[in-house]
# Entry
Amino acid sequence: MTEKDAVAAGRTALVTGANRGIGRAVAAELYRRDIRVVVTARNAEDARATAADLGPGARAARLDITDPDSVKEAAERVGPVDILVCNAGVLLDAGTDPLSVPLELVEETLRVNLLGTWRVAQAFVPPMVRRGWGRVVIISSGTTTEFGGRLFAAAPGYSVSKSGLNGLAAMLAEQTAGSGVLVNAVNPGRLRTRMMPNQPNPPEVAAPFIADAATLPADGPTGGFLTEKRGPGRA
Ligand SMILES: NC(=O)c1ccc[n+]([C@@H]2O[C@H](COP(=O)([O-])OP(=O)(O)OC[C@H]3O[C@@H](n4cnc5c(N)ncnc54)[C@H](OP(=O)(O)O)[C@@H]3O)[C@@H](O)[C@H]2O)c1
# Structure
């Protein structure tokens, strides 16, 4: 174990949408770092199967981030966590534009990505503040920044939802400043998942960077938008 990993070894981490893609890769990376991982998914069986794949000690819980009862139930079952990775998300409006996108798609996108993440934060961050230690990573996206400083207009609801998440991370960081809790938004770069099937890099490529953001030392950043630099042609 490196000195860096020792910061969080033995801590408990909860990852949303951990049954596939980036969430699964991050859960596996945290598990590898001797963190007690709680794999959550909206389908209980998916969560159980992924936790079993990770190995002994990994726990599973059903957690649909859009369902207040599900979030409450998961918070009660799991108890306080030290690390929260808000990863679950949807991309529903790719290939549209702001003037013609069906607003039902935007509404659903905001319901999952923004409000769902916000709901999970409301459930799991206050106990971190009370306990005086916490690391929160909100998975954002380059659609908020990488298009000449503008939002990516060809997935307008998605881009606005991720921009909202950057704002949420900044506000949570401000509210928790000095409490021992660090909150950051992370841009994972483009990765080959169900959401982005044609990308060259698998999610495992970004998992160490995201896990680093979830295990920052006490003097680490808060309220940041952290982007991994994978070099020229970063995919
Ligand atoms: N892939 C990329 O290039 C990329 C780039 C930037 C940001 N991101 C972000 O990274 C995150 C993970 O995306 P991914 O690429 O790994 O996509 P993915 O393979 O489609 O995984 C999305 C995950 O979110 C879960 N989810 C969706 N709605 C949920 C809900 N209501 N409650 C709980 N879980 C829910 C999915 O569960 P089910 O399996 O049940 O559907 C799945 O586990 C997303 O926030 C995405 O916006 C991805």
About this structure: The two ends are 29 Å apart (CA to CA). The pocket of NAP is lined by residues 16-17, 19-23, 41-43, 64-66, 87-90, 112, 116, 139, 141, 188, 190-191, 193-196, 199 (CB under 6 Å).
